[in-house]
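Example 9 (inverse folding). The structure is encoded as follows.
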């Protein structure tokens, strides 16, 4: 079973582009930690979008039980990232969907496979499930203030042929 835990930035980005439901192509279950739910619900009308994702049954709510682990991770990360990494361990997830570099590094050290928004966009485009990546990045920059260098975009495009 392919299990992932998602952080708020990637969830917001993919939802804004109308591609969050496409995660079911790669994952059987995508857990959304409680702190991530709070973060994305701060966005106007995102609560309804999140409820729609839960109805797909791919996305599931979760709550981190190991509060000590979350607190330790809060020294380096935001609350959503800390809960997502803790929840990944608790749910035996193999994948950590996030964009923050530090969170991805910590996830990798914990044995998780980090996957970011750009990697997902590149793979979805390659498989014909999403428009051209540069157009999607432009939309994210314009509408959400998404910050990413051209080198990172090129790296994601180069990784697209590698399966997720």
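The amino acid assigned to each position is listed next.
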């Amino acid at each position: 079973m392919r299990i992932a835990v998602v952080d708020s930035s990637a969830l917001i980005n993919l939802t804004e582009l109308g591609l969050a439901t496409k995660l079911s192509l790669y994952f059987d279950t995508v857990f959304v930690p409680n702190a991530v739910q709070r973060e994305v619900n701060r966005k106007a009308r995102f609560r309804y979008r999140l409820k729609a994702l839960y109805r797909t049954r791919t996305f599931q709510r979760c709550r981190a039980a190991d509060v000590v682990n979350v607190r330790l991770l809060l020294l380096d990360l935001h609350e959503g990232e800390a809960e997502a990494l803790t929840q990944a361990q608790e749910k035996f997830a193999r994948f950590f969907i996030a964009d923050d570099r530090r969170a991805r590094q910590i996830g990798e050290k914990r044995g998780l496979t980090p996957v970011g928004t750009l990697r997902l966009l590149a793979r979805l485009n390659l498989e014909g499930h999403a428009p051209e990546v540069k157009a999607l990045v432009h939309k994210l920059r314009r509408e959400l203030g998404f910050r990413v260098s051209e080198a990172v975009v090129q790296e994601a495009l180069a990784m697209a042929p590698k399966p997720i």
